[in-house]
Amino acid sequence: MINLSTFETKAVIIKTQDFKENDKLVWLYTEKLGKITAVVRGAKKSKSKFLALTLPLCYGEYMVYKGKNLYTLQEGKIINSFQGLLNDLYKLTYSSYLCELTDIACADNEVNIELFKNLVTTLYLLNTDAIDYELLIRSFELKLLRTTGYNLTLDNCSICRKKISSSNYINLSYYGGICDECPKEQGIFISKGAYNALRFLKNLSVDKLYRLNLSQEIKDEIAKVTTFFICNNYARKPKSLDMLKFIKE
Ligand SMILES: [Zn+2]
């Protein structure tokens, strides 16, 4: 008999925390249930079958039981543990940032299949070294903003909606580019090159990113825009942003 409170779903472990003497709490970003928190009984015991399954970044197929307040992890099977990401400071910092961003941008139980797919693909690509890390992260940020309700308007003026071919200004309250007739205030100037790259990057799927090659100046300008929107729209500013800045210097 299938228990109606039991769910099976693919998920990535985005955060963990010790809980009581032997247990652990894990935050799973799941395909079918959105972000959930689950108790893992006995997870801290050395022989626990959950040990590898509940490490940060682990991507697997999980079975959870929905209790009154929390879920309980019942079973799981690893698809990719992504533990290779932990051996490199850059990859570790970037992947921690991806998990933290997903955590702060998503409310509990809000299903977002597109974001889930993007998170998994981005972790895979980060793990393979195929693509410039910074481009991967910027692309993830733009897709995260779009799928959580903060889509940037770049093909039209974000104030008067007139079609624009490019712009040198991003309005931070209207979430987008500005035409030559509208006032350039409450925003930031960026180069037209960065604007066009931003628009291209926003629409490019993650698996086609290898086609894109941007200068460091343009990447820095794009980072300024995405960082602003991320720091101002979600529950809190991601802590791993400081670590990212630190390792870049
Ligand atoms: Zn306008």
TrEMBL record:
Transmembrane segments: none annotated. Keywords: DNA damage, DNA recombination, DNA repair. It comes from the Bacteria. InterPro entries: ARFGAP/RecO (IPR037278), DNA_rep/recomb_RecO_N (IPR022572), NA-bd_OB-fold (IPR012340), RecO (IPR003717), RecO_C (IPR042242). Residues 6-82 form the DNA replication/recombination mediator RecO N-terminal domain. The keyword NADP does not apply. Involved in DNA repair and RecF pathway recombination. NCBIfam families: reco. HAMAP family: RecO (MF_00201). Belongs to the RecO family. This is DNA repair protein RecO. It comes from Clostridium gelidum.
